[in-house]
Specification:
Keywords: Membrane, Transmembrane, Transmembrane helix. With 207 residues, this protein is mostly helical. It has two domains: 147 residues, Up-down Bundle (Butyryl-CoA Dehydrogenase, subunit A, domain 3), CATH 1.20.140; 45 residues. 63% of the residues lie in helices and 9% in strands. The protein contains eight helices and three strands; from the N terminus they run H-E-E-H-H-H-H-E-H-H-H. Strands 2-1-3 form a three-stranded antiparallel sheet.
Length: 207
Amino acid sequence: MIRLAQALLVLGALALWGASRLPWVQVSTFDGLGQPKTSTLSGADWSTALVPLALVLLAAAVAALAVRGLLLRAVAVLVAVSGAGVAYLGISQWVVHDVAVRGAELAEVPVSALVGSQRFYAGAAVAVVAAVIALVAAGLLMRSAARTPTASARYAAPAARRDAVHSETVDGSGTQGMSERMMWDALDEGSDPTGEPNPQDPDNKGR
């Protein structure tokens, strides 16, 4: 499940990079002196957050290899927030009433010289698709985090094994039913997993 989420994150990052290269808005200006001028704004020009968000998705794909439990949940939340932000950027380009004024500001041309504007929907659509991919990947990461044992549980395992070794030794069953790992844990604790008396034990003197 994590591998699939990583593949989706990489795919979403590539889609965002492609969206940042596609044209989003075009503005036409005429100052009355020279020829009319046309300025085309790419996705990266229209929204400077596209490329950083793509890097966030790539970083999340790498981080998913190294973290588990609560940290993996945090990565999933970060991916979900990034996906929601990308979706907002793409949808806002569709629904904004007029792109001419902002386009002129980004193209660094006077608004008074504007004679027309045009928006392109393909780049924003790719961004929205990347957002959906990121949200799906976030869901997969969250499900994987729920199924993965936490670090505290893993670190508690040696203690549980030592308790099991102790109970095996106390009830006199010796090494029967004890795994090799449990025997090594008992030796690390200074206990004899065979249950035989320690000749160096002062309590055994005179017996």
